[in-house]
Amino acid sequence: MSKRTQIASCVVGAIALASSSIAFAGPLADVQKEAQKIQVAANKSQEKINGLFEQSQELLVEYRGVIDQTENLKIYNDYLAGLVADQQRVIDSLQSQIDSIEETKQNIVPLMGRMIDSLEQFINLDIPINLQERLDRVERLRDLMGNSSVTVSEQFRQVLDAYSIENEYGTRIQSYTGTIDASGTQVSVDFFNLGRAALVALSLDQENAWVWDNDSRSWQQLGDEFLDSTIQAVRMAQGLVPEDLVEIPIRAAE
Fold this sequence. Notes:
The chain contains five helices and five strands. The chain is α+β, with helices and mostly antiparallel strands. Among the domains are: about 40-85; about 100-170; about 175-235, no CATH class. The mean pLDDT is about 85. InterPro entries: UCP028069 (IPR016866). It comes from Glaciecola petra.
């Protein structure tokens, strides 16, 4: 072939090759673009997956926390249920007591009446220590029983207080003034009582002394041998002299 022909052939070949490269360049760019889109989409998907994984981990932690809290609440609810059951037992007991109040009143009111009667009878049979004061206390109790503004519990409390005061007379040493009937004559005296063991009376001029005889329910005059001791006993009870041994007549126990 001539040189011109060879050159022409080369030119044609080059043009063909260039055309082929141009023809392939278009689809390759599209593929690269699609690949880039896929990569971007994949990155976004991975980010979503990572986000969902983190959320799932947070939800797992929260779930475990809820489970623990649920167990704690169950234990606490069981505890509260026990308290409620105990409170219900107390309520039932209180209701039972309330229901029995009327029955209790019906039984206790006659009992208090018998207690007051027994107290009055005891005072009248006992040695007359503070006799009028004790009888007045019994009358106040009777008035109290007829007072509708005073509750049954308060009435019962005061009856018990009266019994407690009577009990104290058995251990009390005291001196107080009053009068006695000495052979039909009213005499002003200083009393001295050693519990319920002895009750003596000393005239205010300290010239005479008497002792109470509970069998005869009367005052018996003491001999002069007991006068000084009676004076000393009265002064001791009044706090004028220190306590000491004194000789006074005491009825022997039977």
